[in-house]
Design a protein that fits this description.
2 domains; TIM Barrel; globular; alpha/beta; 3-stranded antiparallel beta sheet; 12 helices; 379 residues
Length: 379
């Protein structure tokens, strides 16, 4: 049996040994611990920048300042734990987007992932020249070819530059989703259809800018066989979130991880978040109470999301997710991908990578054997 290995992922001059990106998960689910462990296994480890200031107690209650202090600390901590490739996930919809993105570039992070909105504008300090020549690569997260087209056209006009990578996130992802509620279960919006659509858009700009721009498949990727399937489809890598939650190195509480292990397929539900977007989460007592019309009183520490109407919101989503990260499940809940119910145990990141590689190898070998049999029959 011929053993097939996962190919490298190349992002310009950046070479990633394994084409696996650990999705950025907030609040505080993917920090330096998880990101460094993934980077050490040859993937891209991603620190989520969202709401880190909420995890720490700040005497001055300046959560915006706290976010920046905490993110800088996590970058330095991760760098002390790995020589691998590290990224930062930044939500376009976050109130301090400009400051966090500038910090990421100032710190020389390997790659920034920009999602939860269309990144059509950069902070003043990140000029077109800096974009082109910085060590930091830029990846955009989209949910359609149309969104990719708009981003690329805007960057071309404003900055004479194109993103270095595109992550296509389908409707099976966890957390906030870039789809209308009715589109989530519509087969016309399946990741298998979105990936070729985005590849077609990106290819035009690859030719225009004379560079390879990898397209990454995300949302519902669970096994090594899934990885093989999407690489065969033309993607150059995958992004995975759910699988990395149930690892020893994940920065969330044991209670958070246990919610994945304990959940059934029926527990995974689509909610409407206080910020007006559909999201996928694991149903629990907190969400049941909210669904029943119960309001969770709160005082907004700072308007972290631009779109949040906190005076009308039934609860503070940042606080609920922070509580879950800390293990206070009765006052929060966990976001999760559609396959979270398949998680049965907590393993090390190293063990997870080994499993994914074995599954990938088997899928690739089975595919080659089928091709061989088909070719012999044809002859």
């Amino acid at each position: 049996m011929h053993l097939e290995h996962m190919p490298e992922l190349r992002i310009n001059d950046l070479i990633v040994k394994k084409p696996i990106i650990q999705g950025g998960m907030g609040v505080g689910v993917s920090m330096s611990g998880l990101a460094s462990a993934v980077a050490n296994e040859g993937g891209i480890g991603v620190i989520s920048s969202i709401g880190l200031g909420l995890l720490d107690e700040h005497p001055d209650k300046n959560f915006k300042k706290g976010n920046h202090i905490a993110l800088q600390r996590e970058i330095h901590e991760a760098r002390s734990l790995t020589n691998g490739i590290l990224g930062i996930n930044i939500m376009v919809a976050i109130s301090d987007y400009d400051d966090l993105l500038t910090l990421a570039y100032d710190e020389g992070i390997d790659i920034v992932f920009l999602g939860a909105g269309l990144p059509l504008k950069f902070p003043e300090k990140i000029t077109a020249d800096r974009l082109k020549h910085s060590h930091t690569k830029t990846a955009v997260i989209v949910s359609s070819g149309r969104a990719a087209q708009l981003i690329f056209q805007t960057w071309q006009k404003k900055y004479d530059h194109a993103p270095d990578m595109v992550v296509v996130e389908g409707p099976k992802a966890g957390g906030h989703l870039g789809f209308k509620k009715e589109q989530i279960s519509d087969p016309d919006y399946a990741l298998e259809l979105l990936v070729p659509d985005v590849i077609q858009v990106v290819h035009k700009f690859e030719t225009l800018f004379e560079k390879n721009i990898p397209v990454i498949a995300a949302g519902g990727i669970y096994s090594g066989a899934d990885i093989f399937k999407f690489l065969e489809m033309g993607a150059q890598g995958v992004q995975m979130g759910t699988r990395f939650v149930a690892t020893h190195e994940c920065d969330a509480s044991l209670e958070f991880k246990q919610s994945y292990i304990d959940c059934t397929e029926d527990d995974i539900t689509i909610i409407v978040s206080p910020v007006g977007l559909p999201g996928r989460a694991i149903r629990n007592k907190f969400l049941d109470e909210v669904s029943a019309g119960e309001r969770k009183p709160f005082k907004c520490p700072w308007k972290c999301l631009k779109t949040c109407e906190f005076k009308q919101a039934p609860y503070c989503i940042a606080k609920a997710l922070t509580n879950a990260q800390k293990g206070i499940m009765e006052e929060g809940y966990t976001f999760a991908g559609s396959n979270a119910y398949r998680v049965k145990e907590i393993v090390s990141v190293k063990t997870l990578f080994e499993s994914l590689e074995q599954e990938y190898s088997k899928a690739a070998t089975d595919f080659l054997n089928e091709q061989l049999i088909t070719s012999k029959i044809a002859v």
